[in-house]
Amino acid sequence: MKREITEPNTLQIYDTLSRQLAGVHSSDGESIRIYCCGPTVYRDAHVGNLRTFLLGDLVKRALEFSGYKVRLIQNITDVGHMSDDFEEDKMLSQSKLEKRDPFAIARDYESKFHADLAALNILPADKYPRASECIDLMIEHIKKLIAMDYAYIGDDDSVYFSAAKFESYGELSGNRLDALKPGHRYEYSEGGAKRFHADWALWKSAGNRTEMIWPTPWGKGFPGWHIECSAMSLHYLDGHIDLHIGGIDLRFPHHENERAQSNPLVTASADSSEAVSLWLHGEHLLFEGRKMSKSAGNVVLVKDVLQRGIDPLAVRFCFLENRYRSQMDLSWASINAAFSTLQRWREKYQKWRDVGATETARARDLVEAMLLDFLNDLDTPRAMLKLRAVEKDLEFQDQERAYIFEMVDELFGLKLLELPGRELTEELIELLEQRNLARSAKDFARSDELRDLLLNKGIEVRDTSTGQSWKWIKF
Ligand code: AMP
Ligand code: ZN
Predict the structure, then answer these.
(1) Which bound ligand lies closest to the C-alpha atom of 262?
(2) Of the CATH numbers 3.40.50.620, 3.30.70.3270, 3.40.50.300, 1.10.10.60, which one belongs to the domain with range 12-282?
(3) How far from 13 is each of 63, 295, 377, CA to CA, in Å?
(4) Which of 151, 156, 222, 338 is a Cys-bridge partner for 193, taking CB atoms 3.0 to 4.6 Å apart?
(5) How far is 158 from 193, CA to CA, in rounded Å?
(6) What is the residue-averaged pLDDT of the chain?
(7) In 3-state terms, what secondary structure has residue 329?
(8) 52 CA: nearest ligand 1 atom
(9) Closest-lying ligand to the alpha carbon of 82?
């Protein structure tokens, strides 16, 4: 249920650039234009990545619940993201490992990414442009930077951004140019073709690379990672970004460089010469004390949660109990506890609503107070305390409890009003059938994809000597 705007309440967030709380506003008076850095699709997204993607969803829900129109763009990085040792494109390393076409890998992980978002009830963006399909936009952007003298073609035919030319370089991350020593490994190496150690490649010449390369006026090659977000955000959001979102590790160099690449192309207005009005960064997720990452070996995937018979929305529940800009530690114990609370609430709601949901002044006040918590720099832990009080507070009648749950369900996105069904719908029958066919045809990629999709919907499929069998999992 949406609420009409009665006063100019808007979302306040902590802006990384100005280092203070700031209101999120629409600069065109029509919609709030948001860009959120998306996944690099060479592997499964872990729930740490999903915590960052959830940030875009929470912003969108808080704004839409307050009556604002939101336009959200999230990119899919399927080329140009170099591995941490700066040697190779992450997509191409994976392609070698799996002995498969890099684009086939990218499309598989992209569809898994969408399934993971759905499992956490993360609202879809308006568009998910792929880097490999926006090469023209990047080339046009780079041409303009060269014409304006912000970029130059190096001896190796790569194109570099001239960091020193952008005077406020470093303001976003605090890494000022004079402090960035040569040899600092924050950008892949260029064998001395750069004029200045802090310059970075907008475009890399192909060298020995034969896959994922494109022609340009300065030779064949492939884009750097940062340029894709500048080119796509300005293009798909019509020249200005009201709010830019990403994980804290993207603040430098990714967003610092993006700001330097984007600002020269926007026309300075009376208010600002910034392409991005506000920068929002989410803190990292730890798992049992350490940052969740593939290299730390502690990743948890949505699939792992499902395999334990737990609704992935229990993970969303845990995330909501922590503020986005604090590190948070997740554990199986906290996921299990969240799951049992979530299920209890869902069951109770089914009883509360029997007597009919009833609006009262105090119930309305509580709903309003929860929204204000969201608008106050996404203070979801405080909003969750209020949600917990709905069940426990003896002051409330069941009818009011039902009313509150119905009002706030879209804000929290926890699917409080549903008990996961046990009915085999037409859609599920069709999916089981397709999975069976894919397996018989030995189309293992498709049959694995369908198995994951069914798992997401609460059905575990097994292959036996007599064919495919399935059962409902716990939630
Ligand atoms: P990637 O697919 O590696 O480009 O990462 C996608 C997003 O996940 C980026 O915005 C990262 O900042 C974010 N991210 C990576 N690790 C974590 C973590 N442990 N917790 C929260 N966000 C993360
Ligand atoms: Zn980005």
Answers:
(1) 2
(2) 3.40.50.620
(3) 12, 31, 4
(4) 156
(5) 8
(6) 91
(7) strand
(8) 22
(9) 1
